[in-house]
Amino acid sequence: MPILEGADVRLNYFVAGEGTPVTLLHGFTQSGRSWHELISTMPTGWQWVVPDLRGHGETRIQPGAPCTMDACTADLEMLWNDLGIQRTHLVGYSMGGRLALHAATRVPERLLSLLTIGAHAGLEEEAREGRRQGDEALAQRIEHEGLEAFVNYWTALPMFAGLERRGPSFVAQVRAERMGNTVAGLAASLRGMGAGAMQPLWDDLPRVRVPSTFVAGQLDHGYVASARRLAAVVPNGRIEIVLRAGHTVHQERPEAFARVLAAHLAAAGTSAGDSSSTTA
User: What domain range is 80 assigned to?
Assistant: First the structure.
């Protein structure tokens, strides 16, 4: 996989396919590899641009370099510029979805459309301090107990229970990918890009004018509510609920999600309006 050298980062990424660019942003503890199955399921005609975000995978930052939404957005611009991409569809899952929302408000001119999975646009101020403390405690847990103990804890969280329906082989594959991260990287990501650290974007979202789809799994109730709020705030926003799926929609039901993404990309030339639908 190629490496792009920046001022304080060695950005690991891959590009697959040819056509209109679609940038895919993974979630916390994942890497760009988590998108391989989806890419293989999608029709041809798209150029998939897939980085490992700061703190994850094979991407490395210099000691003391920021691991923040702003820094990752600058990395995306650096990557797009290096690849000669003026505008791209942007897709993000969970932490990557929050980054996609951040990028949509900071560099809206670079986007063709926006799609998030299991994401929100920041916590209310009264909830942020408690979440910051929780993220710091989690970062210290990683540092004190090590990567394997943390991955065991993280994998067992109820929000990821839907992955078990894919069978033990798939669960082992996801775990192996999480084990490819580093203690320092994940701790830095929690401290700089966790939901507590994230500056809320709700007041900025009405300025996002590209066609936008906010996806949530039917069983991921909190994020269904977040998707509905996002679709109500973004002018060209719509919500898509995928049945029989939890937080990791694109991995729990990859074929169903591929249909959602293909429809979103096909319709992205026009505003989808503020509507909702459900995918079986």
Answer: 3-124+198-279
